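Ticket #240: bound-state structure for NAP.
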Amino acid sequence: MELKNKVALVTGGDRGIGRAIVLALARKGARVIVNYHRNLQAAQETKKQVEELGADAYILKFDVSKRKEVRDALLSLPEDWRCIEILINNAGILGSKFQFMHIDDEEWDRVFNINVKGAFIVTQEVLRFMKKGKIVNIASIAGRNGGTVGAHYAASKAALIGLTFALASQLAPEILVNAVAPGPVDTELIPEDRKSSLAKLSLLGRIATSDEVAHAVIFLLENDYITGSVVDVNGGRYMI
Ligand SMILES: NC(=O)c1ccc[n+]([C@@H]2O[C@H](COP(=O)([O-])OP(=O)(O)OC[C@H]3O[C@@H](n4cnc5c(N)ncnc54)[C@H](OP(=O)(O)O)[C@@H]3O)[C@@H](O)[C@H]2O)c1
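RESOLUTION: The complex was predicted; output attached.
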């Protein structure tokens, strides 16, 4: 798929991996809708960086887990931004409890509502506009091997991978659906004091950069014969 002039929506596009995906799309000449939840300042900085690349960005606030907010926000888009052909379900949270017995119902629901139900809601609402194109879900190695984080986070990312497979079979051939499963990435999601121990879990001795994840997303968007796949970006973690 040629990305130039395509309209892309990146949830949680204001910072972290989402910002790197937004900028990678902008470098390809795509027009990018930068969704954010709370951090308007980060969204404005991302828009500025997109414009410095000579591309267009549109900031759109919504909480991915709130159906009405998502619908109203999408309906508020100017006509020439509604022709979304690329959706990146990137918004996600880690949760604050890592020990299984410390996860209460509220914490479980909070993680699932954003990481899984959020992707479900945004995808359904975007499909009202999108008739052909690509969807990439940002999963995690935790959804493949359980990871070293909370069980709720791991289960939510495994669910997102299941959603990817189901959507790939239901939406082909018009819409191709894939996931990227990164290992630890250098963003604010990972507590600073865990980054060096996580680096040791990679054959490459370091955690990934957001740009390395964005690169895999662009690969999936440009390729027209991959659907229902999960691309691992984890520095050889399975071999450790
Ligand atoms: N960092 C890693 O090691 C790693 C590894 C594997 C997978 N991932 C996945 O990659 C994705 C991005 O992670 P990141 O590391 O870039 O995290 P991050 O730096 O913490 O950024 C999280 C992003 O999600 C947005 N967000 C959170 N809740 C939201 C909601 N309810 N509605 C809309 N947006 C919401 C945030 O928006 P605001 O800024 O407005 O709050 C922010 O843009 C997540 O799905 C994460 O699970 C990350």
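RESOLUTION NOTES: The first helix runs from residue 16 to 27.
TICKET STATUS: resolved
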